[in-house]
Amino acid sequence: MVEKVKKRSAKAGLPPGSLVHVGAKMVAESRVRILDYDEGSVREKTKAALEECIPFRDTDSVTWIDIEGLQNIALLERLGSTYGLHPLILEDILNTDQRPKSDDMDSYIYIVLKMLDFDPATLEIVSEQVSIVFGRNYVISLQEGREGDLFEPLRERIRTGKGRIRKLGPDYLAYSLLDTIIDHYFLILEKFAERIEMLEEELVSNPTTETLQQIHRLKREMIFLRKSAWPLREVVNALEKSESELIRPATKIFLRDIYDHAVHIIDSIETYREMLSSMLDIYLSSVSNRMNQVMKVLTIIATIFMPLTFLAGIYGMNFKHMPEIGWLWSYPLLWLVMLAIAGIMLFFFKKKNWL
Amino acid sequence: MVEKVKKRSAKAGLPPGSLVHVGAKMVAESRVRILDYDEGSVREKTKAALEECIPFRDTDSVTWIDIEGLQNIALLERLGSTYGLHPLILEDILNTDQRPKSDDMDSYIYIVLKMLDFDPATLEIVSEQVSIVFGRNYVISLQEGREGDLFEPLRERIRTGKGRIRKLGPDYLAYSLLDTIIDHYFLILEKFAERIEMLEEELVSNPTTETLQQIHRLKREMIFLRKSAWPLREVVNALEKSESELIRPATKIFLRDIYDHAVHIIDSIETYREMLSSMLDIYLSSVSNRMNQVMKVLTIIATIFMPLTFLAGIYGMNFKHMPEIGWLWSYPLLWLVMLAIAGIMLFFFKKKNWL
Amino acid sequence: MVEKVKKRSAKAGLPPGSLVHVGAKMVAESRVRILDYDEGSVREKTKAALEECIPFRDTDSVTWIDIEGLQNIALLERLGSTYGLHPLILEDILNTDQRPKSDDMDSYIYIVLKMLDFDPATLEIVSEQVSIVFGRNYVISLQEGREGDLFEPLRERIRTGKGRIRKLGPDYLAYSLLDTIIDHYFLILEKFAERIEMLEEELVSNPTTETLQQIHRLKREMIFLRKSAWPLREVVNALEKSESELIRPATKIFLRDIYDHAVHIIDSIETYREMLSSMLDIYLSSVSNRMNQVMKVLTIIATIFMPLTFLAGIYGMNFKHMPEIGWLWSYPLLWLVMLAIAGIMLFFFKKKNWL
Amino acid sequence: MVEKVKKRSAKAGLPPGSLVHVGAKMVAESRVRILDYDEGSVREKTKAALEECIPFRDTDSVTWIDIEGLQNIALLERLGSTYGLHPLILEDILNTDQRPKSDDMDSYIYIVLKMLDFDPATLEIVSEQVSIVFGRNYVISLQEGREGDLFEPLRERIRTGKGRIRKLGPDYLAYSLLDTIIDHYFLILEKFAERIEMLEEELVSNPTTETLQQIHRLKREMIFLRKSAWPLREVVNALEKSESELIRPATKIFLRDIYDHAVHIIDSIETYREMLSSMLDIYLSSVSNRMNQVMKVLTIIATIFMPLTFLAGIYGMNFKHMPEIGWLWSYPLLWLVMLAIAGIMLFFFKKKNWL
Amino acid sequence: MVEKVKKRSAKAGLPPGSLVHVGAKMVAESRVRILDYDEGSVREKTKAALEECIPFRDTDSVTWIDIEGLQNIALLERLGSTYGLHPLILEDILNTDQRPKSDDMDSYIYIVLKMLDFDPATLEIVSEQVSIVFGRNYVISLQEGREGDLFEPLRERIRTGKGRIRKLGPDYLAYSLLDTIIDHYFLILEKFAERIEMLEEELVSNPTTETLQQIHRLKREMIFLRKSAWPLREVVNALEKSESELIRPATKIFLRDIYDHAVHIIDSIETYREMLSSMLDIYLSSVSNRMNQVMKVLTIIATIFMPLTFLAGIYGMNFKHMPEIGWLWSYPLLWLVMLAIAGIMLFFFKKKNWL
């Protein structure tokens, strides 16, 4: 997240609408994949040239153009002119540090959000920006091109004609893309839940400095996750409440469903945040408890040996005239006195509940 | 709660509306119970087949179909087709990790919320998801099937015709179900109140690490309880403000009543949360107070014995030329000096209010 | 407050509208007091039977029925049927664990709120629920029956015809009751202010563990007070904004006045809460400051005596060949060295600002 | 503030609208000052009798009646009857513990707010309640009568006819009074800013317990200041949005200006609050840092001398058979060993970064 | 920020609309720069006299008057009379302690906001107030005159006719100014991000008191940054929602774009605030962890040497009758006993996990 902000400065001073790719290049080459379908038939072109979508532009079938990798600015410019996209929208697509939002541009609707994944190597959340543009008969989805293809099951559903997807329009396809992305947030939350559970056990059994750092790391990731998830609610709500003709009433009930999911995700994030804060408190108080335990032992031992050492010091003095020195039983008697002092002190500490 | 989120991942990638039971199987077999009544008569069928409700579908009497156990997906599909329920609603019913909400589907209203109970064995809150669907002349209630039947008193009231329930429609029955569930929240709050009261006494009399853990456990359960209770207000408010014809004006005043209950519950939860936070503060400051007490005793003892031990050390030195060594009264004099030093220090500490 | 919630469980499972008295019985017998007045005349009946109000029901004079003690359920049922009160309203009246609210029931308005008092014996706030029902020509006030009669000055004002009360309708009487109750909140706040002031002085002069407990106790009572006072604003606001014909425009300006009072009370409560939190901080930092002071003295004394005791130990060794032992001036020289060490250390600590 | 609340209790039980002066008597006698002006001429009467304003009541010139000292209740009653003020308004004027607010009473508008000043002797904020009533052709301002006259520059402006004030109506005069009072808040904020800056320097250079108390005192005053300033925004906003004919459109742009000022003041207060909290954190962590520094020195010294003293103790033992005792070089060797031990420990602590 | 508030007091008591320059004088002389352009041609005058803009006042071309340095009050008065600006607006322009806001004055729109920059010398944020006034055919921008000219790239774009700027009206120019200023906020955020990242590394590797002070300094600057950035959202939102004819519909989509930027900036600020708080927690707990580590070492060493020193003291006593003294093996035996005691203690501490 810290790195993300940095990239923007490359654009300072340029006129608005300037197309500069802000973000890491994730694939060698931008990949275009075209899938055109109606209730009866499906046409698919992988590694297509963008121009191959033009014949479908004026038919009634739904055309799904999926682009991975945003570094090819010429490609995007051609896309913009083919579908009449506003320069600011193209700028937003290229700027991969966008806050999730949806814009109703009359002839098409633009949605941008974060697709989250869990990097199994670093145990960190990785995020990829996904832009979705949909109009009367097309859906364009643009990904940064991180590895792994979340949309493959969806594509398979279109190919096999399973479910209602082939019968419904581009708004339903856009919804399905959103649904796929948002469902993935639950996977992230599960990973969090697992890690929180593990940490809770660690907290009870053996809290270490490592535990503390884990809690802090989770808290930080939670801040990041929250930043991506909070605007989701607005985005979906704006779509559901939208009066655009591009969203059919039948689709709205599905949008309402992912709205509930978004609220659920935000709720869970807030709950985890509270749990992490609570765990931090437990950690701190259990560390200070342990410290106190150690300190008490010192207190007891020091407090017992101090007067005894003093007494030993007394009879180590070299005064000529110390009558006790010469008595026969004074040495064993002193031992008795010392044991008595130690015993009384222990009893006193026990009674005070300090042991 | 942590476990709850996990289950969702089983569904990732499936098309929306796919019926998968997300949740634990709690009863061996789904149980269907049909109760059909009007002002004059009652017909009840326990362990019924779902099809037995079909004759009642088009009569004017109120039909209450109560289903326990959600694992029988075929049963739910038949239910869906009999009463024309939307696939997303069926999906929500099966997904027992739902956030409480209500959906107005024109021809029926769908309500989902959590029924809470207190497990006397583990002293923990157990929750069960209850879905309520009601239309023109029917109410369907679906429970996960945890043991214990909260709705029996209601059934008894219908059988005996006590109260106004037999005279009123399905909206009143749905309200009665909500009322029963929400009233149970007060029982949970009472248990909390008892445990908080016990902890408060413990805090004053004898705070231990166990007390701390109890406070933390209560805080955690409170987070969970709050997550279930907060949306209740919205749910009931949406019903009360609803313009659906399914909710008669006469029922709205009753809904207003449980709205007040929901607000009351949320208020109490917030109050308990504040009290628990306050108790945590008391615990921490009383623990640190005790620690300080112990430390002070060490301080006093160490500070008194240090100079005395030093003096004893001085006269333990073996210098040939130490005039005091040979004097007759130097030993008892040293004792006097030592007692004086100890006395002055004690007086000083007393005056400084350190003792 | 903790006890309050408990009582509700007695009602779980009963149909809504069941009349069960939830709360402690505070008077031996329910007392009814009827006061009927118009601009010209006043008729008063103390220890009246409820039926004595019936003749006044259809006159234009204002009838004030004041009932103390809610345990007589038959009485309330008769009251309900005489004035046509909804069963849920009667239930709310009996349930003394109600959140303050107002309900507009078309032919009458129902208000419920907490009357607070300060128990001089336990120094705790005691609360009593007051319900006010007013219609076209009557006001019914129902109290739990705690000792002390806040409404007597009001009754006296009616009897003597002082002020504008005799000329105005039941809405003004209801307002006067509200005003009397809300004015009493200021008395409670004054008591708080006094105790906070005393605690502040104690904090500066001599903070003890008792001070801490006092702060915590005040914080707890503040939580309780806040729970009673926050809804007041809504209640009065709802009355002021109400479009009911029962509230005359002339009365609204008075309602606006107690609305300001309610806001003022809430403001003060929030201010006191902040002050108590701030005081807690001062307490904790002053306690830790004192502890640090004590610890520093130990540090200084220990750090000074340690090397001295070590030196004394050195010359207490019995080595045959220690040339210093035999020298004539080594003993006084050692004393000088020791004093020098102590002096240098003191100077060093002084310079470091540790003393 | 704590004292303020107390005074209200004098009024408990009185009918609403009873005129009792709640507040300290600040001047020996209430002073009335009348200033009547129109574009062409100014008439001024200081130490006037109230009745002298009557001739101006029905002219078109603007009459400004300024009253200092509220203890003369008869005067206020005459004022009320002359200008037709509602008894509740008179009550609010006398009750100097009012929350800032504005009331639109159709024929006049009532504004009450706090005028703040900085007592140079006690370094504390002193507040005085100012009520402003303005109608078609008059403005009445009522102050408690604290020393110092903020309104003199305004009066001078009227006398000399400087600015647009003589050309505009009573609403502009009322605005000018508000502007004068609110501008004074900036002076208070400057004083705060200065004290915060001084404290920040103290924090860095030499934090003492006094610094802590200063921070707490500032925090407390900030709570008080905030209580006075927060409602200002509502007050000015209500005036700006008011549909009363008493406020001309031309005046609204000026009201918008002081609305911006009020928001600015509130912003600054919140910023200072955050800065004070932040400073408290710095103080606490710097105090604990210093404490840790002191503790570390003890740790190092104690940890170094403990084994040395032990060794000295060993060779102070009187065993008959200790071969080392007799050796020629054992004494200087022991010194070497001791120096080595101390050196190794110092090196170890250095390496561990504890020194 | 603290200094900013101070300057206002110079104005207390002056009538509203008095023109006094509140702020530091940053340039020797106010500089006026006039740029007049339409689609076909550009006319530019640097170091112009204000009067040179008059010929352009009634043409249709867009006139951009850029003024640096606000100390020349006569210049501003002439500007005010030339373009008919309200005195309060001129006052706001001169008062460089303005909260960001926008005012719609019918014939022109006034916007004031903070232009932030990063002083590389002091590593602190410096802010400069920018006022923008735009009407039918002109834009006036007023800067305090800090070094560096953010608007030069914009000017260059106008001169070369690049982009759409020459074709669009003054609203688009005003938007471009806003866009330039707001884009600069991202640069500030990047600097913050860098410093936070550096601090995070420091926190892990080697936290010092300096780190703490850095965190606090960043927190303080964040408070300041937030105060400047929060109102931006309102400002841009007010412009976007404005019904003024001065803002063409085509420009609104650009305003929506910077609205998104403003929200993004605020989001980032909140995220950084949370991260800084979290870092403070890590710092504090890592410092206390280190302290505990040091304390534990003392505990272990002290606890081990105390009984050993005591034993040495015992056999240093001079009693005549101590049989052990004379035994042959008692000295080596004592060493063994001592080693055993030390070993047992170490083992015990190890087992308790204290080492």
Describe this structure in words.
The structure is a homopentamer of 355-residue chains. By secondary structure, chain A is α+β, with helices and mostly antiparallel strands. Chain A folds into two domains: 2-285, Beta Polymerase, domain 2 (2-Layer Sandwich), CATH 3.30.460; 295-351, Magnesium transport protein CorA, transmembrane region (Methane Monooxygenase Hydroxylase, Chain G, domain 1). Chain A has helices at residues 2-7, 73-83, 87-94, 152-160, 170-205, 209-241, 249-314, 323-326, 330-351; strands at 31-37, 42-45, 62-68, 101-104, 109-119, 124-134, 138-143. Chain A has a seven-stranded mixed beta sheet with strand order 2-1-3-7-6-5-4, with helices on both faces. In chain A, helix 5 packs parallel to helix 7 and helix 6 packs antiparallel against helix 7 (249-314). Chain A is rod-shaped and about 120 Å long. Chains in contact: A-B, A-E, B-C, C-D, D-E.
